[in-house]
Amino acid sequence: MTQELSRDSIRFPSSGHIWVPRSGGRAAAAGMSMYSPCALPAVFAQRALYVAVRVLGPRIMPGRRDAWSDPIESEVWEAFVDEWHAAFGAWDSMALYRRPQRGRTGCALLLLREGRGVGFVRITTDRERASNEFAVMSGVHAARPATFRIARPVGWGSMDGWSWIGTESVPNYPLGAVRRESVRLKVIDELAGILDDVLPRASSVPRGWRGSHGDFSPWNLRTEIGGAVRVIDWEDAGFAPPGIDALYGGLTAHLTFGTALPTSTNQEAVEWIGRVLMSRRADDEDANELNSRLIELLRTVPAA
Fold first, then answer.
1. Contact at 8 Å (CB) between 62 and 52?
2. Closest CA relative to residue 260, chosen from 300, 295, 290
3. How do residues 99-116 score in pLDDT, each as one tens digit?
4. SS3 string of 20-80?
5. Which residues pair with 241 in a beta bridge?
6. CA–CA dist 146, 193 (Å, integer)
7. pLDDT at res. 40
8. How far apart, in whole angstroms, are the C-alpha atoms of residue 208 and residue 40?
9. Could you read off the pLDDT of 129-145 as tens digits, one per residue?
10. Of 188, 191, 136, 145, whose CA–CA distance to 165 is shortest?
11. Maximum Cα–Cα distance for the chain, whole Å?
12. Which region holds residue 249: left if phi is over 0, alpha if psi is between -120 and 50, else beta?
């Protein structure tokens, strides 16, 4: 029997794409951790608010008081909820994240028990990508990487055109963003080597292509309070021209932190990233939105 959940939430942050539970300070603060600011002022502000909400409760949290509705068809939602209880054990509330980028679909959920995260679930319409992501994360986790951490995969499922993939919860406090290029490049180097072994290489994959994360941005490369690096969101992992993670990481770091743009790359990487950005770009996206800005920046990077 599907458990009846309270849907009373606070929509956070200003864009309102995260529904944070109002059941208590610990749960509300944990839900805030789904927001991933990168600029230092926003990171510090989030951490200060996190502490205040833990102490004083959700009443002090800014945002519209609201109630979320099922993010997918109710019949499928109820079946998935039962599967998540089987996979993660008991939980009593959740935070809901809807992607703010108009060119990207799906949602994510942080499952909470007494305000503590017990699991993280992402819902998608692409069954093949969900299956691939679960296999990739399982292989990367088993490799025990030295330069970064990855959440342990727990399970995945599919029904009526919807799929879910679940992992253990990452720490339920605001994570920081990796700012140093040297750290980013060390992670990319180890990650590529692991993915070369984990990913099945079809005969159609060009010989020189490397295993790549595919979305190596500051919001997917986070730091814990102790300094450990977390790599999240593996749905775009696959073989690609060498250099795409370094190029995309450099472009997004420039937009986020104002760091220097990559000084050079290869033409294959430029063309690959260009196609990815165009596929994520909404038809009516204006020049100030993320993908459009990245496309313009990409044109300025020298390619050989």
1. no
2. 300
3. 776 555 689 999 999 999
4. EECCCHHHHHHHHCCCCCCCHHHHHHHHHHHHHHHHHCHHHCCCEEEECCCCCCHHHHHHH
5. none
6. 12
7. 85
8. 38
9. 999 999 999 999 999 99
10. 136
11. 59
12. alpha
